[in-house]
């Protein structure tokens, strides 16, 4: 099919020039045969032009398609006509695994199915001689010398962990995603981006929590209000404040990060970890039994947890729009512009007490008062509540 | 327990204790969350096998995971035992959705999106045993012959594609036969050098034992006669080896 190949190779220019000069509308073209017929007609017209001796406009270096004389609308129309001709050519590729979609569009907790986990190789454990018997509950059986992790157990634990991440994000907690192996950095960063959390893909510096003031003391911190807007003017006060610690740590390779998980345990921080058949499930608060050696599995798990964090953050901001705050604001900060720096907390508490007294005639119990103060502090928001983040 | 560290597990209780004893001014933000979504049970081991009777010295395997066995496994060992080189074929292990095997219809041995493999033979055999009610051996033979037919077609396709490529100007690197011949030639040359050295050593040793001139060996005519006798057996010679038979023809 020499004619067709010529038309395809030079078709763009030939069709373009012909369209401009002859208004060759290809709106009825549906099949390749019709396109071939068109190109045959064009070649025949070229032939007649040659025979008649009329000078043919030579294809210049800059074809008519890109000439300045045609408007954007004409160019777009040309493009659309060419697209219609060429769109249906080529083979039909059926749905298949596209690795980049796990990072660009990760699955959410509702999309977690056993088939997804199977395709992500989450069921492949280590050799049977290397197992930790504490994981016996998560193992389905032995095949080809390795332990096979039960995918229904994996799915259940993953959904549980994602709910924890969602709720902690909703309450404005600091979530840290850690993945220090080769190739885990993109997954961990993407999860942190979605959940508006923090990531770590290089080696954890031992003592970052237990000796945080020394190691992270020089890190910048900032004050944000409930709508995630930075509130300026707190630099001096922040300088004296203690270093922040995460409220939840998600570790994707706990076998290499024992020190991090131990520091979290010492400082009473809940942890989530991907536990393989040779890992110790007591190192983390919420184990997710899965294959930590497969990058695809890690991308699925980190993606799901990131999506859960994203949902939690969305809930938090929606409530903030309505004026409800889901967290306990930072204590000991004075709004900038105030003269009195020493009586920060009592002032705030005084305000709450005054409000409470205005609302009720008499208060019977100290417990009742403390309950009312707590309720007030937790739920009320008048734009002056503040939260410290780094 | 002594060896276990349950601090990650008891994070909530510790937070409550610290708050109740006024060590911490407030409860952490995750306190309610961890209370509503408690961590799963840890270190529990399910019983999987029957316990051993009393009075036996070996430890019980009650808690060890069970092997996963499928009926196809025996068929696989049979097929790959008969066709060991099928194991050498490269295999694509990446799955698309996990539901790849759902659309397969084993009334035919070739499935779209699946390599023609020993696995296809085994699945086809199972289908025939189940649906066409063939015996295991009969189903194996039917599936096997379909497999051979499609492998033959594949080989023809590959050969024709190579010929087409060569005829339109493609060039390839050295094939395995060519590389093998080069390696053999190199080994042959190094052996020749070694052999000549050995001959020299032997001659010198013989010369030491006896006095007087040693004979030079065969004369020119005698050497030619001897060579003619030995010629067909020598691999690296001009005449080459006599052909012993034709190439195998597929049934």
Written overview of the protein:
The complex is a heterodimer of chains A (390) and B (251). Chain A has 13 helices and ten strands. Chain A has helices spanning 2-22, 32-52, 72-87, 101-104, 114-119, 151-170, 185-195, 212-215, 235-240, 258-266, 295-322, 344-359, 366-379; strands spanning 124-127, 139-143, 146-149, 175-178, 198-200, 222-224, 248-251, 271-275, 286-289, 387-389. In chain A, helix 10 links the parallel strand 7 (248-251) and strand 8. Chain A starts with a helix and ends with a strand. Chain B has 251 residues and is an all-alpha fold. Chain B has helices spanning 11-20, 31-36, 72-82, 118-131, 136-167, 176-209, 220-230. In chain B, 10% of the residues are buried. Classes of the chains: A alpha/beta (390), B mainly alpha (251). At the A-B interface, helix 5, strand 2, helix 6 and helix 10 of A face helix 1 and helix 2 of B. Chain A: This is Ribosomal protein S2, flavodoxin-like domain-containing protein. Chain A: Residues 369-390 have a biased composition (Basic and acidic residues).
Describe this structure in a few short sentences:
With 390 residues, chain A is of the alpha/beta class. Helix content of chain A is 45%, strand content 10%.
Biggest contact: A-B, 52 and 41 residues
Largest β sheet strand count, sense and barrel closure of chain B: none
- What is the residue-averaged pLDDT of chain B? 91
Largest sheet of chain A: 5 strands, parallel
Multimeric state of these chains?
A: heterodimer
Number of beta strands of chain B:
0
CATH H level of the domain at 101-209 and 245-321 in chain A: which superfamily?
Glucose-6-phosphate isomerase like protein, domain 1
State the low-pLDDT regions of chain A, or none: 1-8, 342-361
* Continuous helix count of chain B: 7
How far apart lie the N and C ends of chain A?
66 Å
Walk across the major sheet of chain A and give the strand order.
5-4-7-8-9
Task: Report the portion of residues of chain A in β strands.
Answer: 5-15%
Distance between the termini of chain B: 70 Å
Order of helices and strands of chain B: HHHHHHH
Unreliable residue runs of chain B: none
Keywords (chain A): Ribonucleoprotein, Ribosomal protein
Family (chain A): Belongs to the universal ribosomal protein uS2 family.
Pfam family, one (chain A): Ribosomal_S2
GO molecular function (chain A): structural constituent of ribosome
